[in-house]
């Protein structure tokens, strides 16, 4: 019988290796998988990680704590500058953390492209800006586009509302944000959920992430 | 701008948003526009890049849910008829030209509609772009709301940006504390649609970095 | 007050002009907007249409009836050859109907690209086949891709289950198929629905097509 | 193949599908594999390109819903735990390499895994491709199920396709009425994994258009 539920996130987190790229869900605090991040900090020896996320954490919580733990060498991010993002700011200013700044829509679309098997795509976002410097451009029917490539993700850490044993997921309101595209993009997707329900309790019309994109989930 | 001026500015923008429009309000000044939308009389549908389409207000104390926020990370309370979606779907709405209007703040706007609003160019600054570049080029019309001049009194409507651009040729209309202006594709001038009462054309022109065409302005002197 | 419901589809259908590209939902019979197709046949003078759809109709129903009515000069389609697709077959063999055959996934992705503002994308599907002849190709990280472009759609005709006055839609089971991407791709989207519900009755978590993609709907 | 041979072939394919696999069964012969999957003992998740992931059976008379069909347009009945999605999402699953296995019929397969299954090349034929090209290149493994030879007795496992290709280098394994074979990236040969009882290597080789490596075959002569 298929059952993707795990009781201990530590074992799943141990699949993260040195140099891996880890996508971490969340927009601000909404959808941030804080238990998974804490497990990565306390129970993994993996170093030299690349993090893909919309923000870079605040205070010393979530991604900020992960940065502070010294496990991260690069962050691919749209909005690292937030109130109380001092951990990021200090590492960045000291040159201890590489930043690849990506417009938010390109970040989402590059993750989706990875999950959808698209080799590259022409996007209008960022054309003519420093964030497109050095990138291939093309004019198509009078519009200027930049060629963007998928983001290869080894492991996604995301937060959802409910899961059944097949790993089908629903989310809670705006905590959905990057979860579905990160689950698509990753080779291994680990999910923290609030509720575990029996097979059939999730309406097939309302499943947001089908279980094919989920490897392990656990109840927090 | 003082609070009263900001509210007047937000009211002028809101008055130009038609019923049924799909509208994204950027963080900062543009969020004030929400207070001036028509409610039941003139329904407008808001979009926020973190995945909601619908109508909402700021969530009152006691009804705040950390999982229900807008792009400025402010808790909101939905009215009936909303929809949630993920980030790739949300930015498809923008980039695909489905939003009628987005309203953004700005450091500078050029007469041809180039926008600078994400980075001062200061190499010491910690950069952050968020959804600004997607919004700027995505909506059918991009409105800018800003002070007419910067803190040093320099014009923010310019012939060429000196700050790094957010998007090129994307701003259609500029709302400032002293007027409303349309950009022009050739970048030769901006067209005044409204001038604040009590100001002469010369006073407005002096604070503006490009030539102003006043021929469309119906408000001044009326 | 916003209300996208219409009582008579004829007026909405009259927005279709000569030479327009019309995307029509459905996979086989599931999701086929038969009332809208019939309205197009009986109440529109538009000619020289290009149809975008997965199939080309069977017997003399749905798209087959539209083809028979002589309004269509081209069809962009993945699977026109079906049991009792004689209307299509005869027009095609007589050279009266141009066919652009598109792999099903490229058809869906090209519609999505149009809706999502993507200028073009590299897909692995079709590489090395006659359906990619003359198209730009590129090898990216060891995989061969074909460059595919969006399909510009003037009007989409689709079928959904329920709508509220804002045009938010849910679908019924596999009748969902191409509906959501066609709604995204079209300048004007017209929907036939089984149920009309009050604002707030559709769970915001379960809306599949947000109202921003819908112009008019009516209850059949 | 007669019905019994078809069922035996479907059973051999099904036996090679592990528990928890995500599986797409093409129309025609491959649909028979569904009857041989393990049920509760060995759960396998089916995918159909028209937008369902889950477990199902053909819908019994009286429980058929025209809005609930598989890619072959056959009404199905779902078991608990399914999900619906739209066509772009469905083909993302394929093209993105998320399906473990797809099983397809074929006119021809080359030793390097090139597949021809959508068009005979007859200029009079009405063409139709459906999801074949997406499936062929999308799944992690593409299995082919087919007669070992065509109606005229010509080999269908060939060194070079003579029919128009569906996809290049995509087939990993070929199941025929007389054996199971692995393709090789360099296209020099196929490797036999199974030979039907009672057949000699020479008999199998004679019906095959490329050299067969029998060194992996554990079944013949046991």
Automatic annotation (TrEMBL), chains A, C:
Keywords (A to Z) from UniProt: Transferase
Catalyzed reactions per annotation: 3-oxoadipate + succinyl-CoA = 3-oxoadipyl-CoA + succinate
Gene3D superfamilies: Glutaconate Coenzyme A-transferase
The name this protein goes by in its record: 3-oxoadipate CoA-transferase
Domain of life where this protein originates: Bacteria
Lineage: Bacteria, Pseudomonadati, Pseudomonadota, Gammaproteobacteria, Pseudomonadales
EC numbers on record: 2.8.3.6
Catalytic class of the enzyme: transferase
Pathway: Aromatic compound metabolism; beta-ketoadipate pathway; acetyl-CoA and succinyl-CoA from 3-oxoadipate: step 1/2
Xref: Pfam families: CoA_trans (PF01144)
Assigned protein family: Belongs to the 3-oxoacid CoA-transferase subunit A family.
SMART domains: CoA_trans (SM00882)
Organism of derivation: Marinobacter iranensis
UniProtKB/TrEMBL annotation, chains B, D:
Record carries keyword Lyase: no
Keyword Transcription regulation: no
Pfam families tied to this protein: CoA_trans (PF01144)
Originating organism: Marinobacter iranensis
Swiss-Prot/TrEMBL keywords: Transferase
Database matches in InterPro entries: 3-oxoacid_CoA-transf_B, CoA_trans_fam_I, NagB/RpiA_transferase-like
Principal EC category: transferase
SMART domains, sorted: CoA_trans (SM00882)
Signal peptide annotation: none
PANTHER family registered for this protein in UniProt: KETOACID-COENZYME A TRANSFERASE, SUCCINYL-COA:3-KETOACID COENZYME A TRANSFERASE SUBUNIT B-RELATED
The EC number(s) this enzyme carries: 2.8.3.6
Source taxon at top rank: Bacteria
Pathway: Aromatic compound metabolism; beta-ketoadipate pathway; acetyl-CoA and succinyl-CoA from 3-oxoadipate: step 1/2
NCBIfam families reported in the protein's UniProt record: pcaJ_scoB_fam
Full protein name: 3-oxoadipate CoA-transferase
UniProt record similarity statement: Belongs to the 3-oxoacid CoA-transferase subunit B family.
Catalytic function, reaction form: 3-oxoadipate + succinyl-CoA = 3-oxoadipyl-CoA + succinate
